[in-house]
Amino acid sequence: MAAPPIRLGPLIRAVAGLVAGLVLLLALAAWIGSAIPRNPDWREPSTGVTIMVETNGVHTAILVPLVSAETDWRPLFPASHVADPARPYTHLAISWGEREVFLKTPTWWDLRPGTVARIAGRGGEGLLHVAHYVRPAPSPHLRELVLRPAEYRRLVAAIRRSAPAAGAHRYPGYGRQDVFYDAPGRYTAANTCNQWTSDMLAAAGVRTGWWTPVAGGVMKWVPQG
What we know:
Blueprint: H1 8-35, E1 37-38, E2 49-55, E3 60-65, E4 91-98, H2 99-104, H3 113-122, E5 124-133, E6 142-147, H4 149-161, E7 170-172, E8 178-187, H5 193-204, E9 208-209, H6 215-219
Antiparallel strand pairs: 1-9, 2-3, 2-6, 3-4, 4-5, 5-8, 7-8
Helix pairs in contact: 4-5
């Protein structure tokens, strides 16, 4: 007597339901985690050093003045490292992320399921992205934040701890004004690019979310002017 056929429909539905449940659970955890404040008593001063927080809806970056009384970033991130070094750059956009995602997925359509599964499973190596800007203007996706000089110095120190070591390898960026550097840190589902942004802000003393794996969890703490 022949064995009854294996019915894949119920199994597929069960697996799909499990995946959907996990996604919803992670979304709920991210919403709760990003709503818990670090540095809850911090208030933005009326004067100080103006930085910016940038988002494309998925990824976030911190913009800092290229030169200020507190620091000069040019020795660490010289314009000679980008393809168009002659422009009158005024700011740097600095962010951290996973090496393969940064280097091999110029658009989100290039992101492969296997890459996502690997990152979720064992993580990946960190990479720093530095883009040079000329007089960036505030917008809904580029929001200003004023720090006290001492807070900005703490931000600088935190970013420098993620900076490439002397002689670290660098890679061409997406365009003529940006570059990637090998950088310390391991990217995981718990330690994402957006978590790095909020960790940098928290190190400065800024009020931000406790766990911010997605961009919205960072940006909701940065008021839109």
